[in-house]
Design a protein that fits this description.
The structure is a single chain. By secondary structure, the chain is α+β, with helices and mostly antiparallel strands. It has a domain at 20-165 and 250-319: Nucleotidyltransferase, domain 5, CATH 3.30.420.590. The chain is 33% helix and 25% strand. It contains nine helices and 17 strands. The strands form five sheets. It has a seven-stranded mixed sheet, with helices on both faces. Strands 10-9-12-13 form a four-stranded antiparallel sheet. A hairpin with a 5-residue loop joins β3 (89-99) and β4. α1 (20-31) crosses α8 (272-285) and α4 (156-165) crosses α5. The N and C termini lie far apart (39 Å). The relative contact order is 0.21.
Length: 329
């Protein structure tokens, strides 16, 4: 059995990240006791007080609220400026739905600019996190009527270490791409292995640009929605790469597991080993991914997104009251 260093690392301030818990489930579900998974799990940071707002698990599915939060201390992905302390915002909000019957799983991105009116938050949903994770959970539950059974938060430095432990993650670009605010700089089209710093710049990009045949840079007009699509693709790529590495050499996963354990915080009742078991089948096959149908609007002078009428079909699936629609991406 591998001897793992389980000394807790200092927890830095949180920023928008991809979801290390999914890669953790990939490795634990495949390698099990070979990587001393229980020792790592016992040292994962806990978010106290969440049991009071989380729904009890009782049906044939479970929803995980996966959150990457942004203090802006290391730069605003919207403006490129940084260093100011303006409080925390939940910059990435994703619901992971796990079907306990057939082992499948699905991801739903919730736009950070979604306008909500709830008992705990009126305004953009990402601002709810400023009053704490419990407030964000309540806002999601009330605004979307989606039960939330588990809570997972992802850490900036931990994410970078995770990507580095994977040896980088390959992403393919149809055109040269950049984001001057986050530092993304892909000089040539094709497949590139992104290191931790590059992966973060890609994941945070809200002003994603491509160099087209006319010689001009064109910004993705979908902004945060486009970023959500890229994040979901990156999650699946991380999953597949983690599974592939463990299959090739299940004894050489210590660094990867340590990176994952230090990248996340979870609610005070979640058992990540059980979570790994429930996701084992889905990880190997890839996850169905969905975007939330929304329409742009202006409320109180702020540019926001409102739920589109078509959102009900997707939401019903994540509520456990409807069948799975065709994946969005």
């Amino acid at each position: 059995m591998l001897a793992l260093d389980t000394t807790p690392l200092p927890k830095p301030r949180r920023l928008p990240l991809l979801l290390a818990i999914l890669v953790l489930t990939a490795v634990v579900g495949t390698a099990g006791e070979l990587v001393a998974a229980r020792r790592v799990a016992d040292n994962i940071s806990r978010v106290a007080g969440m049991s009071a707002v989380l729904d009890a698990v009782g049906g044939n599915f479970e929803n995980y609220l996966l959150v990457g939060s942004d203090s802006r201390a290391l730069g605003d992905p919207n403006t490129g400026t940084g260093g100011e302390d303006i409080g925390s915002r939940s910059d990435t909000i994703i619901v992971l739905r796990v079907d306990n019957g057939n082992g499948t799983a699905a991801l739903l991105s919730i736009p950070r600019d979604l306008y909500v009116e709830t008992s705990v938050r009126t305004g953009r949903i990402n601002g709810a996190y400023n009053d704490g994770p419990a407030t964000l959970v309540q806002a999601v539950q009330e605004a979307l009527a989606i039960p939330v059974h588990h809570y997972v938060e992802v850490d900036f430095f931990g994410f970078k270490a995770l990507v580095e432990a994977l040896g980088g993650v390959e992403v393919c670009f149809a055109l040269p791409a950049r984001d001057v605010n986050t530092g993304l700089d892909i000089a040539a089209a094709g497949c590139h292995v992104l290191d931790g710093t590059q992966a973060l710049a890609y994941a945070r990009s809200r002003h994603y640009e491509e160099l087209r045949a006319d010689g001009e840079w064109h910004e993705d007009p979908t902004s945060d929605l486009g970023r959500s699509t890229r994040q979901r693709d990156f999650i699946n790529r991380c999953l597949q790469q983690a599974v592939a590495q463990v299959k090739v050499n299940p004894f050489d996963t210590g660094d990867l597991v340590r990176a994952m354990g230090n990248a996340i915080s979870i609610d005070d009742e979640l058992d990540p080993i059980n979570a790994a078991a429930s996701l084992r089948t889905a990880v190997g096959e890839g996850l169905a991914t969905y975007s939330l149908p929304v329409v742009p609007d202006v409320v109180g002078g702020d540019d926001v997104l409102l739920l589109d009428d078509d959102a009900t079909i997707v939401l019903d699936f994540f509520r456990g009251t409807g069948l799975a629609p065709a994946p969005t991406t």
